[in-house]
Amino acid sequence: MGRALIGLVLSTILFGCTSVDRHACTSGENSTVSEVIYFGMAKPTGGVVTGAEWSAFLRTVVTPRFPAGLTVWPASGQWQGADGQVVREDSYVLNLLHPADASAEEGIRAIIAQYKTQFEQEAVLRVRSNVCTSL
Fold first, then answer.
1. Tens-place pLDDT, residues 99-128
2. 39 with 115: CB under 8 angstroms?
3. Three-class SS of residue 8?
4. Which of 27, 42, 60, 70 is at 20 to 30 A from 94, Cα to Cα?
5. Which residues sit opposite 135 in a β-bridge?
6. Are the beta carbons of 30 and 133 closer than 8 angstroms?
7. pTM (two decimals)
């Protein structure tokens, strides 16, 4: 009896966890990945990423990897750096919708790596969600 109860509890937990991450899109919707990426504009050596630099980055680094479309908006916020200091800075937020495939994942990683290198950034925040979309 004890083993059966343990087996029932374990299978309930395991099957319950797998169903949490999975959701079915309704008719007319597509399963898609939504990426929200936060790019800080302050340069650690002084100054900021200019509007012209940001536009060029979008044009030459982001758009070639995701030509189907994107949304960008300005933001301001704060984060705590590795040194423990709270940094307040203006940012740009990039939202991309794409299929869940290796090519898109590679593109996102390349965009983040290029931004960190090009603008000497300690971090770029990435928030990834599975969503349903429709047009």
1. 999 999 999 999 999 999 999 999 999 999
2. yes
3. helix
4. 27
5. none
6. yes
7. 0.79
